[in-house]
Each structure stands twice: as structure tokens, then as C-alpha cells.
Amino acid sequence: MRHLKAHKKLGMDSSHRKAFFRNMVTSLIEHERIQTTDTRAKELRSIAEKMVTLGKRGDLHARRQAMEVIRLKSIAKKLFEDIAPRYKDINGGYTRIIKIGRRHGDNAPLSIIEFTMKKQEEKKADKKPAKKKEKAASAAKE
Q1: Which domains does the chain carry?
Q2: What is the CA radius of gyration of the chain?
Q3: Residue 38: CB partners within 8 Å, gap ≥ 6?
Q4: With contact defined as beta carbons under 8 Å apart, do 132 and 73 qualify?
Q5: How confident is the model at residue 119 (pLDDT cuts 50, 70, 90)?
Q6: What DSSP character marks residue 137?
Q7: pLDDT at position 80
Q8: What does the pLDDT read at residue 2?
Q9: Which of 54, 77, 98, 122 is deepest in the core (most CB within 10 A)?
Q10: Torsion sign across C-alpha atoms 59, 21, 13, 111
């Protein structure tokens, strides 16, 4: 029975696992989307969502708590200034896991873990080139 066993060991000792997930959450915040195995993604999700919750709080104590996990000031700054404000009206569900198949080498199930909302600037940037293309097309017709 698995009573009172909240997390998986993933074949690592505790210090290795702690360092591994620190690196994974830092990469997830930096790139906003990473590919890993299903089990690792499921374990990473809880840590990443806690970091976003700290980012939403935004006070000094929350920054210090986040820096215990993240370890890079530039990535922590991105968390607090870019990622967390996107979720100010949402309670939880900041990440999604998309299953993408199996790895060729060892047949391990792979997933992509990403943040659910994208930057507002990216959405605006996607619209702007479309307008330019329309203007160019209309100018070419004339």
C-alpha cells in the first residue's frame, strides 16, 4: 500500500532529486515549455505551481522562498514580473501536461509540460504581421 507516500523517488536519492527538480523548474520558467517523461512532468507540476503561487504573492518573503528553489535571479525576476501576473485572477491550474508518445531509446513515455497562458505580447505580435500581410496584399492588387 502507498499510504502517506506523496511523491515518487524516481530512482534518485533525496539530494539528487531536490537538485534535479530545482534545475527542471528553472528550465520550465526560462523556456515556459519543456519535454520530459510523464512521471517527471507530474512531479514537476506541483513544484512549478507552487512557484507561480509565490510569484503571485510577490512580497519579499515569497521572493526569498522562490530563490531557495530557483537559484538564478534572472529567472526569478521573470517569474515574478512576467509569468505570475498572467495568473492573477486564476487559482491553480497554471501548467498543462501533453503526452507526446514514447522515447526511441528506452520506450519511456514522454510529455511536454508548459504554462497554460502565453504572453500577451506574443498574441499581439501574431496579429500585427497578419495586418502587414493584408496591407501588402491589398497594395499589390491595386
Answers
A1: 14-117 (3.90.1030.10)
A2: 19
A3: 97, 99, 109, 110, 111
A4: no
A5: confident
A6: H
A7: 97
A8: 86
A9: 54
A10: positive
